[in-house]
Amino acid sequence: MDLGYSGRTAVVTGGTSGIGLATARLLLAEGARVAICGRDAGRLERARDTLGGGDQLFAHRCDVLRREEVEAFAAAVAEWGGGALDLLVNNAGQGRVSTFAETTDAAWYEELELKFFSQVLPLRAFKPLLDRAAAPAIVGVNSLLAVQPEAHMVCTSAARAGVQSLLKSLATEFAPHIRVNSILLGLVDSGQWQRRFEARPDQAQSRDSWFGDLARKKGIPLGRLGDPEEPARAILFLGSPAASYVTGASLEVSGGVSRHI
């Protein structure tokens, strides 16, 4: 299937690693022009080298929680991309492991700011560019915790649920011109899980064995963690003209671990 990305322009926040990097790679392969951002200049440069997109790739250092930096990124993309944006992929933030008793007020503020404003600030900055595109789309990268909260991640679960409500509301407010969808992630192989593997109690245990044990412990029916390219494929579909009648939807990419209907 031709997803229709040739000649289109996309922005991927958090594009220096994991799902963001995989999404940028697939978009480039589909013929899109792609702008990525990240907070760390070194990681951004390594991502640029890894992607090797030439003139089709634009990399800009930006902290998505700083309004002035996000606005500067949007202005730079407008100049580079011709003033219109076809796809915005909001992809930032990782989970916080803590119960209600363990979560301080400061941690609540930090988590809510990260989850909400990593969506809100790019949405505000890039909406004028999306408005100028013929058939624009937004895809928010969210977590299954939004609909299936976990007690040991109470703060992140609450924040993720709020973000899902935000995206659902925007699908109505931005219609009919801009489509807004989301993906709901289960466990995906990432730097976070790699660090936990490296800190494993039994240093003789192989990576495959450790990740297999993790999948069994978490009750993942497919028996493994996801590869970053797997949610990236879902993002590409939802953001593409091929999904032209899909808005306000959430697509689970969880290996079957969800328990709700």
According to CATH, what is the class?
Alpha Beta
**Helical coverage, percent range:** 40-55%
Range of strand content: 5-15%
Cα gyration radius (Å): 18 Å
Molecular shape: globular
Structural class: alpha/beta
Distance between the termini: 29 Å
Following the backbone from N to C, one meets helices and strands in this order, namely EHEHEHEHEHEHHHE
Number of strands: 7
**What CATH architecture do you see?**
3-Layer(aba) Sandwich
Across the major sheet, the strand order is: 3-2-1-4-5-6-7
Q: Could you describe the largest sheet, including whether it forms a barrel?
A: 7 strands, parallel
Tally of alpha and pi helices: 8
Structural features, described:
- With 261 residues, the chain is an alpha/beta fold.
- It has one domain (9-188, 226-250): Rossmann fold (3-Layer(aba) Sandwich), CATH 3.40.50.
- The chain contains eight helices and seven strands, in the order βαβαβαβαβαβαααβ.
- The protein has helices at residues 18-29, 41-51, 67-81, 105-131, 154-173, 191-198, 207-218, 229-239; strands at 9-12, 33-38, 57-61, 87-90, 137-143, 179-185, 250-253.
- The protein has a seven-stranded parallel sheet with strand order 3-2-1-4-5-6-7, with helices on both faces.
- α3 runs parallel beside α4.
- It is globular and about 50 Å long.
- The chain starts with 8 loop residues before the first strand and ends in an 8-residue tail after the last strand.
- The mean pLDDT is 94.
